[in-house]
Amino acid sequence: MRVLLITVGAGVGAPLRYLIDKNLRNTRNNLLPIETLLINVLGSFVLGYTVHRSANFGYLFGTGFAGAFTTWSAFALETHDLFKSRKHWVAWSYLALTLILGVSAAALGNALT
Hints:
This protein has 113 residues and is mainly alpha-helical. It has one domain (2-111). Helices cover 82% and strands 0% of the residues. The protein has helices spanning 2-25, 34-50, 55-69, 72-84, 88-111.
């Protein structure tokens, strides 16, 4: 049952991440990877919201949905690319925003349970 719940959650999370990324990437100003930031902050909120719920709810929305929806690898690569492009202040801002907003979103989600 756990694997099925995780699979269903991931089956929704990954395509939703793709659609948000695709649509926001077409509208951004190429300065800050706002689509990845938004996705990871939303995913942090979802995980914070699900962490103290029932196990099945956690498997579906925490491990499955949030796990497939968020993207550490894209965040890491985009940050590396910003440093490589000598956009140091943008890279540091991106790191700080991701950390501050992600932790805040997780805390907010957790507080709402």
